[in-house]
Amino acid sequence: MATLLHRLGLGAVRHRIIVTVAWLLALLAVAFGAVKLSGETVNTFRIPGQESTTALDLMKQRFGDASAGANVQVVFQAPAGQKITDPAVAGQVAQAVATFGKLPGVVAANDPFDKRAPSVSRDLSTALVTVTYGVQPSEVTDDERAAITGALEQAGKGGVTVEARGEALSNAADVGGASEGVGVLVALIVLALSYGSLVAAGMNLLTAIVGVGIGVAGITTLSGFVQLQSTTPILAVMLGLAVGIDYALFIVTRFRHELRAGKDVESAAAYAVGTAGSAVVTAGLTVVIALAGLAVVGIPFLTEMGLAASATIVVAVLVAITLVPAILGFIGRKALPRKLRSAAPSDETIAEGRGFIRGWAAMVTHQRVISLVLAVLALAVVALPFFKMQTTLAQRSPEGSTQARADAIIDQRFGPGVSAPLLILIDGPKSVAYAATVQKQIAALPGVALAQPPRPDQRQTAALITVIPASGAEDQKTVDLVHAIRDKVADEDGATVYVTGQTAISIDVSQKLNDALPVYLALVVGLAFVLLVLVFRSLLVPVVGVLGFLLTIGSAFGATVAVFQWGWLADVVNAGSTGPIISLAPIIIVGILFGLAMDYQVFLVSRMHEAHAHGAAPRDAIVTGFRQAAPVVVAAATIMFAVFAAFVPQGNDTVKPIAFALAVGIAFDAFVIRMIAVPAALALLGRSAWWLPRWLRWLPELDVEGAALERKAARAAEPASV
């Protein structure tokens, strides 16, 4: 691989104008596609084939768009000392309801005073109005959203307290500029300090931004043909920006090292791609395996997210091994600090703080038992909250928002179950006759606050029962109630019973995700273990890497649960609302964090392996490799931490816990696992760390350290035989 990438890097630097123009044209092409072909993203999570999803589609066919469309629940609370049924107050409510019914996109707005289905609290202080749209939440336009917001503001001017919640009020998640701006600024500072050259730092950022631009624009174009989750572009930006900067950082650092060793610009760029580029390709392949592995879970929206993010990583790798050397050809020795551009060749790298790094490596490898035990214990303590993690798909409202105030009023006046209604669909030619029996059976179940009378469709081929649980959407009792209805309410000949609604869909998707997580974890760990065996031709080094990753995952989840579920230090990170972690977060975090953690394992240990292959004793090889790679890994981890952390205070509720887990996970992995635990463990293992059984020595050698290039250079340096 090193030889092939060396040729690619040499071709890129020699034909740098063509390579640069080709990448710029690619960026313009996908940007044009994003503008002309993009579509809408969605916020809903469904799994085709599940009972709740099948029933929702049937319900829409039988009862029309109003049964399954987006909605807004509006709460009217009478002033203190008055009742919502007082003529003056009721008149204001009725006028507002009439206005809601005429808004663009609205297909229904129920009358809370209708005697057939009243929606007034028992103390007569509050009325609940449901405004229904004929489309899914992602299809509600900005104009329609602005219209309902204006009507709500107008309705609240008459003295009645008006609050609202619902998926139709919130727009799809988008990529805000503030988050990326903070991450890029921190990255620029770290790069400038690492390189001692603004030219090199700016080049590094420029190439990363080109890769991110192509990846995100490509995903935006794809949204016109495939229904993607609204978080997919955000994940692509976070990942693309982080790995794009880091991959370029590794190659540029090696390029500068080769310049200092006396190579010319073209040779240094080609050699950097052949050596550091090999590690970049290996690390990128690990990330792609982890993300593309989401496809085996069998959940379409996760598959799409994983493949889209994988494509962004592939673009970042291609940029690193082609565009980066091309740009290096333009800037040449300006990549070095000004004082070193004319200095004599030296074998030493130019990273700052080398004395401290060498001392740190010597201390960790000398006090290896204590270092390893302290690192493991520290992360194990942080990981303890993980065992109390709860997940849900229910979207929590930001504290202080109108949605949060509406939640509080509804829970207090109507009960928590009103926020988690279940829809029971009885479908078939005998459904209407059987519906009354179903309603009685459900009403008798524990945990049911109300089972409303059946509502038949116009053709008398289906009936719908709304069930109000006694518990909220995130309560385990509601989950138990859904399972109880499915277990105890049987189908009849000609009448099939389904449990659906957003609460049931959330429960089904969460269960599917929780069941898939162990399988997915085993898959990505197994595949990456095989890849690391091929890279290092060792069994114990991959074991150390994988065990370290498991500690990273546990501690990242533990910290996320403590902050976002328990509320510890929630205000410090602007966590917003707290409660169970969103269900899709754990499996996404595992995939992304595993790939990035293996990046550091490859970059760090490959330099140790290179030193060992050159004849260094095991402990000396660890210190030498650590001295060469650790400063770059620290800089890369700092940049990644900054990019992910920037999305925590500014992101939406779906992105916040994911970004937080990735940020703290990167910090734990880079500064505890790779800087302490891995060198200490390898020092304990000694020569056995690089042991490979005889029966596995047939495995191909990937050569990420560039041994083939060194052998070629050595042969070229030998005098010609006479």
Automatic annotation (TrEMBL):
<dbReference type="Pfam" id="PF03176">
    <property type="entry name" value="MMPL"/>
</dbReference>
<feature type="transmembrane region" description="Helical">
    <location>
        <begin position="181"/>
        <end position="198"/>
    </location>
</feature>
<feature type="transmembrane region" description="Helical">
    <location>
        <begin position="660"/>
        <end position="685"/>
    </location>
</feature>
<feature type="transmembrane region" description="Helical">
    <location>
        <begin position="369"/>
        <end position="387"/>
    </location>
</feature>
<keyword id="KW-0812">Transmembrane</keyword>
<feature type="transmembrane region" description="Helical">
    <location>
        <begin position="307"/>
        <end position="331"/>
    </location>
</feature>
<keyword id="KW-1133">Transmembrane helix</keyword>
<feature type="transmembrane region" description="Helical">
    <location>
        <begin position="234"/>
        <end position="256"/>
    </location>
</feature>
<dbReference type="InterPro" id="IPR000731">
    <property type="entry name" value="SSD"/>
</dbReference>
<feature type="transmembrane region" description="Helical">
    <location>
        <begin position="580"/>
        <end position="598"/>
    </location>
</feature>
<feature type="transmembrane region" description="Helical">
    <location>
        <begin position="543"/>
        <end position="568"/>
    </location>
</feature>
<feature type="transmembrane region" description="Helical">
    <location>
        <begin position="268"/>
        <end position="301"/>
    </location>
</feature>
<keyword id="KW-0472">Membrane</keyword>
<dbReference type="InterPro" id="IPR050545">
    <property type="entry name" value="Mycobact_MmpL"/>
</dbReference>
<protein>
    <submittedName>
        <fullName>MMPL family transporter</fullName>
    </submittedName>
</protein>
<feature type="transmembrane region" description="Helical">
    <location>
        <begin position="629"/>
        <end position="648"/>
    </location>
</feature>
<keyword id="KW-1003">Cell membrane</keyword>
<comment type="similarity">
    <text>Belongs to the resistance-nodulation-cell division (RND) (TC 2.A.6) family. MmpL subfamily.</text>
</comment>
<feature type="transmembrane region" description="Helical">
    <location>
        <begin position="517"/>
        <end position="536"/>
    </location>
</feature>
<feature type="transmembrane region" description="Helical">
    <location>
        <begin position="205"/>
        <end position="228"/>
    </location>
</feature>
<feature type="domain" description="SSD">
    <location>
        <begin position="183"/>
        <end position="330"/>
    </location>
</feature>
<dbReference type="InterPro" id="IPR004869">
    <property type="entry name" value="MMPL_dom"/>
</dbReference>
